[in-house]
Amino acid sequence: MPLVIAIDGPAASGKGTLAKRLAHHYGLPHLDTGLLYRAVALLMLDAGADLDDGGEAARTAARLVADQLADPRLRERAMGEAASRVSSVPEVRTALLSWQRRFAGGEAGAVLDGRDIGTVICPDARVKLFITASPEERARRRHRELAGRGEETTLAAILADIRARDARDSSRSAAPLKAAEDAVRLDTTELDAEEAFAAARDVVDRAREH
Ligand code: CDP
Ligand code: CDP
């Protein structure tokens, strides 16, 4: 069976960084599924559509093509918030489901990171990780990251964003952010990216032995 690693967790927990490193280490293709929701939001904003128009969001999701995942604007702070709004529409999630399943179902195996990978997209993944860190630590990480890209914001504004997004992502009825029952939880509040990678590698290596 190809190796599929499902990684979920809240904003700025370090799941994307970890997913990239695991993918490189095990030679697996990687999909950052947050980009799909960010791309739907960006296409809607570019078209002047209302982000709360669920029908338009679903039509936009159904038209999404891979080329649209490369836009550097997808990484901007405002897009995380906008993505969170469109991602609560069940029809948007359905439109993006088969794309993600196809990616995960390839012969080569895969690493996917997001909010519902272990629960909805890849319930049979060999390895499931649920990455957390305190909201304050996540806000510091995101603040550092955005400052590095020249996007000026305050730590307080980012912490408020993170709390709002945690609340919305965890409370929505369509595929809420939650750990799968068989996920291994990794709290990275006190870990740097290297230590988190080492801990995750141990989990994957143990799973591969069985
Ligand atoms: O990197 P960060 O965690 O800040 O954001 P992201 O992973 O790019 O996700 C942006 C938003 O998309 C999240 O707040 C979720 O609302 C949504 N999302 C989702 O609903 N399901 C996924 N599998 C991935 C992202
Ligand atoms: O994908 P997600 O939003 O969960 O987080 P990320 O974009 O992978 O990570 C946010 C920032 O935290 C990056 O700049 C990482 O270098 C840093 N970081 C980390 O990924 N893991 C740690 N254990 C500590 C910091």
Automatic annotation (TrEMBL):
GO molecular function: kinase activity
DNA repair as UniProt keyword: no
ATP-binding in keyword set: yes
EC id: 2.7.4.25
Transmembrane segments annotated in the record for this chain: none
Reaction catalyzed: dCMP + ATP = dCDP + ADP; CMP + ATP = CDP + ADP
Keywords recorded for this protein, A-Z: ATP-binding, Cytoplasm, Kinase, Nucleotide-binding, Transferase
Name listed for the protein in its UniProt record: Cytidylate kinase
